[in-house]
Amino acid sequence: MQTTSPTPHVLTSARKRVVLISVLLSTLAFPLTITGASLALPGIRTGLDASLVSTQWVVNAYNACFAAFLVLSGALADVLGKRRVFLGGAGLFCASGVLSALAPGILVLDASRALAGVGAAAALTGGSAILSEVFDGPARARAFGALGTVLGAGTAFGPTAAGLLVDLAGWRAVFAVPAAVAGAVVLLGPSFPPSPGAAGRKVDWAGAALFTTALLLLVTVLVEGPERGFGSPAVLGAAAAAAVAAAPLLDLPLLANRRFLAFALAAGAIMAVLVPLLVYLPTYLIAVAGLEPGRAGVWLLMLTVPTVALPAVGTALAKRLPAGVPVTGAVLLSGAGAALLTGMGPDSAPLALLAPFALVGAGAGLTNGLLDGLAVGSVARDRAGTAAGLFNTVRITSETVAIAAAGAVLAALTGGGLSGSGATGAMHTVALALGGAAAVAAVCVTVLLRPRR
């Protein structure tokens, strides 16, 4: 029986292709279910007779659990084996997607979405680590480039696909289709190479529990605060508990790796700009600008198409330039695009939004997959699972907190919804804050990547 992890030359080309296809398929399902849930919220609220706050948890429960379990699943991948964690995560994602599609009420749907986030975390972390193990050299760069392209495709065309699913089959189809994709991944499992875990390595369960608790409490504060009041005893208590529990499962040697930390910070900053805009811009375009949902989806292609069109460009630039140049430049592009949205208004024409939308999308597109490969490649191979988990934790936690924070600002400034005369000003405030945060992140990335003297 094989007792060591396979090296890149052990597998045949055919089996490597199966591994790559499986990881790419699972990766495609995650952005589809995020954007799909956002577009399905009106139908969910009506169909399940749910409140606004409870429907917000359809998105936030998934994102929060996705972020909270990334480090834990990365550690488990190193201990139990990458294949087990990847396929187990895909299986859980599939089962929870089926439960979401069949949910009889909002509480069941929210709970199943939380489980889906756990499964997605395990599959994403295990998948990235498997690619790092199976492929090497230029082949690894191409594999992670394909990963970035698929992530970009899911982000770019997810809103359009989800809108069509909702129109054709109702909101439940938004959860059923990604579940079917994950089921296909599980069926490909026997083709995966053995991947035993590292002997003697342990998981910090207490740290994982504290990190998960802290993140969920923080999101709870941001989601519930506008409705209950940020000064209410319940919200203040949750904030205090989050502060006490903020002892996350962190791999300190990885945080001491300046290059790894820089790439993780850059990824978090870019996603913290892109994803909140993907969540809230459709509502603004429909409710304030008066667009039909289909037309709003077409306009959003200006934002999302660059995410799928530019990963190859980013990879090519990284081969010719120091890593800090394209990485920092991408963060600045995203921030500049967000800041330019302060010129957006109810009567804005598509061409007036082309530059800000395209800049935000370009920042994400130039680094999709590239940052994953740079981050995981900056650590030893036997730490790949933990590195992938921590990297994705920073990225997903950043977008999760940004979504909840942007929603809190919009709710506070508009009285609970993106409508009325204050909606445009509220969107401008959010856009300016996102742009400023990206600028600060770009400075930090530059400092971290600067060679020590």
Architecture of the largest domain, CATH level 2?
Up-down Bundle
- Give the total of domains: 3
Instruction: Work out the strand percent.
Output: under 5%
Number of strands: 0
* CATH class term of the largest domain: Mainly Alpha
And the CATH topology of the largest domain?
Growth Hormone, Chain: A
CATH superfamily (homologous) name of the largest domain:
MFS general substrate transporter like domains
Averaging pLDDT over every residue, what do you get?
81
Tally of separate helices? 18
Estimate the helix proportion, in percent: over 70%
Q: Biggest sheet, open or closed, and with what strands and sense? A: none
Distance between the ends: 49 Å
Describe the structure.
The protein has 453 residues and is mainly alpha-helical. It has 3 domains: 1-204, MFS general substrate transporter like domains (Growth Hormone, Chain: A, Up-down Bundle); 209-248; 251-453, MFS general substrate transporter like domains (Growth Hormone, Chain: A, Up-down Bundle). The chain has 18 helices and no strands. α4 (82-102) runs antiparallel to α5. The chain is globular and about 60 Å long. It is found in: Cell membrane. It is a multi-pass membrane protein. Keywords: Membrane, Transmembrane, Transmembrane helix. It holds the Pfam family MFS_1. This is MFS transporter.
Provide a brief overview of the structure.
Helices cover 79% and strands 0% of the residues. With 453 residues, it is mainly α.
